[in-house]
Amino acid sequence: MRYIIFDLDDTLLNNQRRVTDYTLDVLHRMQKMGHKLVINTARSKAYSQEYFDRIRPDYAILNGGAQIVDGEGTTIFRAELDADKTQAVVDDLLKLTENITVQTEAVLYSHRGLYTGQNAVAFDFDRERVSFSALKIVASLKEEKQAGEIAEKYALEYTSYLSGTFWRFNHPDATKAKGNRNLMKLVGGTPVDVIAFGDDLGDLEMLQQAGIGVLMKNAEPRYYGTCSHITDFTNDEDGVARFLAMHFGLE
Hints:
The radius of gyration is 18 Å and the shape is globular. The strands form 2 sheets. Strands 5-4-3-2-1-12-13-14 form an 8-stranded mixed sheet, sandwiched between helices. It has a 6-stranded mixed sheet with strand order 8-7-6-9-11-10, covered by helices on one side. A hairpin with a 4-residue loop joins β4 and β5. About 30% of the residues lie in helices and about 25% in strands. The protein has 8 helices and 14 strands.
């Protein structure tokens, strides 16, 4: 196994959104053994930076598969929506909700400043025309049907999170699973070379395509049985690190 790929929230991170010293120790021991560490998250690079600095991964798959960076933070893959398509998608979303954000490589734009986290920059999509490409668009929608219709109209990938409250729209070549496959193409690997960890619906495909796909114990019970392995411990109990330590005989 050469590539250890893990989601962040509710997978590698504990419930305080921290990486414990024990987990860091196991991950860095895996690196010394020759394995490559890969973050795979829906977060942006900026929103992942503290973990990037602590974990020191060899690669990171970001924005739900829309961007891949190397260990130096240099982008080696990008799947963006151009400015015209971004504007068109946002125009249709505005008919359904005002809670919309657009993530570029450098900036998170929030419609009228309704979302203030992640150093978001206020942008009035009603009055200002988009002049930038988007790595992802996120919107709060009442029904999956609405998200599906937007995605079908513009040939986008879409994923729900936060119990279906929010929906993420990406370029058709951008999902977490496709991010893994795109990375393997870049490095000359195959899915057989991957051990992947995740906890949610958006992670399942990447777990199922991996040589070893590991679902977190803290995942919703409805996902049990969908993957080849499940951790004995939750994300709040160093579940990823404990699985790796046992699997590779580190303890």
